[in-house]
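re the bet — no i am not wrong, look at it urself. input seq straight from the record:
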Amino acid sequence: MKRVLALLLLALVACESGPAGPGDPTSPIPAPPLREATLLRHLGLLADDSMGGRLAGSPDEGEAALYLLLEFMAYGLGPGTPGYTQEFPLPQGGTSRNVLAVLPGHGSLAQQWVIIGAHYDHVGYDQVTPDSILVYNGADDNASGTALLLEIARYLSDHVEGGNMAGVARRSVMFQTFGAEESGLVGSTYFCGHPTISMHRVVAMLNLDMVGRYAQNGLRLIGTSSSADWPGILDNVGANNLSVDYDDGGLLGGSDQYCFHQAGKPVLFFHTGLHNEYHTAYDDVVLIDTDGMLTVGELTTDVVLQLLVRPAPPIFSATP
């Protein structure tokens, strides 16, 4: 614990908080200045051997949750539940937690919510000998999505509250980092069953899971069938200029967007595909495409900014 608290202190000291650049929050929106150095800092800590693979219910997962909580606080975000953490029981025994943070909206749209989510747990480690372990660091799965969510949260906190959107009518944002996704979507399912905000006021959920292999696989945007409004929104932010596959391919149930879709919410799942290192000890930071992560992050942020200010929310379409 002393080690991780020292790391957290260093992380907070290093936390950048410069002003966001100017820009019109309406369509089209310029790409936001997400920071590669910040992404690498988050990735390096979350996917380090010292995190022990972030197994659900383990002290290692708890240390990762504490890091997320302190980052959200450093950005000036409010708690999405008392104390930021929503604890829940695990099927195998023990507890995990979701870490939830809020960026308040403004004016006539403030009671509506846009959710951005990512799971931060992974699959732990193997005990190779009595004295050694083989850690599954989960850099892509899903330190990548978690790191990107943190950087988007940092940017939005600067740009929305301290930038040119300060007086604009806009929806609220909840940042949700889920525990125990690898145990069967447990954290997100628990939130949907025990929401800390009214689910009736949630207009969309965006999920970031495995977003570190854009150069290898391109981007798969799963869930565009969940609203007839998605194609127009994505066209407004230039998604068609990127390497994007819009085929759901039966993967709507494959990550934490699932329970939100089941609850009748438009969803988008940002995913750069499977690879040979998936759920192995070789899913390390050295293989992460950070330039591609920035591309995915800029697209995600642009979609969020559209959702915050568009007069009408996207309308849910049941998937055939």
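see?? Residues 1-29 have pLDDT under 50 and may be disordered. told u. also The two ends are 49 Å apart (CA to CA). so pay up
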